[in-house]
Amino acid sequence: MDVLATGVQRDERPLLEAAFAGRHDIRCLEPTLTADTLPLAAGYEAVSTSVNAVLDAPVLEGLVRGGTRLITQRSTGYNNIDLAHAERLGMTVARVAAYSPYSVAEFAWTLALALNRRIVRAASRTRDFDFRLDGLLGRDFHDRTVGVIGTGRIGTAFTAIARGFGMRLLGWDITPNPECEVLGMQYVELDRLFREADLLTLHVPLAPSTHHLVGARRLAEMKDDAILINTSRGALIDSTALVETLREGRLGGVGLDVYEEEAGVFFYDKSLEVMTDDVLARLLTFTNVLISSHQAYYTVDAVEEIVAATLRNVNDYVAGRITESTLIPRP
């Protein structure tokens, strides 16, 4: 089968090509699939998309006109896909049900530690032979409180690391996870978690019920020196409200690997362009904000699992199988 993979990173391409070799013909392209790049997909029965693809009704209709019948997304999240319309069109849609939770959990901790110990500022200074410690004062995580919102596989991996730091563990989820309870986590209401957390991390999916979960009211509940980490989905946080909170001099640090308007920005070199997103531009001016471009998942272990799952999704489509990765089965 001819497969088109879009939004492919340079390091990801050889892994995809090696996995599909001798099985299916795959073409890997860097551009993300959007209305503008839609013509590239013409003639491909299967299209593999990245998390920032825009798969709304017009794009889906264009894919079907071009002969596409399978969308296999290389991520666990799929809020960018209009599933109801895809089903009406008779398309098959699959995702990556799971991959290494440690990649994201460890990166969330990387952001937290870098913010707490002012690593970026310190490294920048020493490159200029400035070895002062002024402004680099951090604090122990030991004996402080972490609030974990979402205790699935990634949240559980994050919690296990927090336990290693000797932190007090607070959690919230629709259903408590026994694995986290064994680690010593106490499940509490969101109000209490936001009030008491010294470090707060988000690991829930984006849904109507979690959109702007962290808004002005929740931000006001947080401690003035709390650290907020988001490696899940950008729209979990109201970015405008976050800017206002930071302008008031509140929050000890903010680590964002995702941003609610990241599509068309993250994964691209914008260094020679004017940044027209005023909110993102403002966030980048705060010295206690650290932003990375949706790279938390980006380890060789996780990408290999994602590639393997993508190949399985194509094979399952051909065989007519339904698996845990299937969002819409083949008609």
- Structural class estimated from helices and strands: alpha/beta
Quote the distance from N terminus to C terminus. Answer: 18 Å
CATH homologous superfamily classification of the largest domain: NAD(P)-binding Rossmann-like Domain
What portion of residues belong to β-strands?
A: 5-15%
CATH topology of the largest domain: Rossmann fold
Helix content: 25-40%
- The overall average pLDDT, rounded, is 97
The domain count comes to 2
What does the main sheet amount to? 7 strands, parallel
Task: Give the neighbour order of strands across the main sheet.
Answer: 8-7-6-9-10-11-12
Q: If you compute it from the alpha carbons, what radius of gyration comes out, rounded to the nearest whole angstrom? A: 21 Å
The CATH class assignment of the largest domain is Alpha Beta
**Distinct helical segment count:** 12
List low-confidence stretches. none
* Spatial shape: globular
How would you spell out the order of helices and strands?
EHEEHEHEHHEHEHEHEHEHEHEHE
Number of extended strands: 13
The second-level CATH architecture of the largest domain is 3-Layer(aba) Sandwich
Keywords: NAD, Oxidoreductase
Family: Belongs to the D-isomer specific 2-hydroxyacid dehydrogenase family.
Protein name: D-lactate dehydrogenase
Pfam family, one: 2-Hacid_dh_C
Question: What features would you describe in this structure?
Answer:
With 331 residues, this protein is α/β, with parallel strands linked by helices. It folds into two domains: 2-99 and 299-328, NAD(P)-binding Rossmann-like Domain (Rossmann fold), CATH 3.40.50.720; 101-291, NAD(P)-binding Rossmann-like Domain (Rossmann fold). It is built from twelve helices and 13 strands. A seven-stranded parallel beta sheet has the order 8-7-6-9-10-11-12, with helices on both faces. Strands 2-1-3-4-5-13 form a six-stranded mixed beta sheet. β4, α3 (83-88) and β5 (92-94) form a beta-alpha-beta unit. The longest helix is centred in the C-terminal third of the chain and has 20 residues, at 300-319. The mean pLDDT is 97.
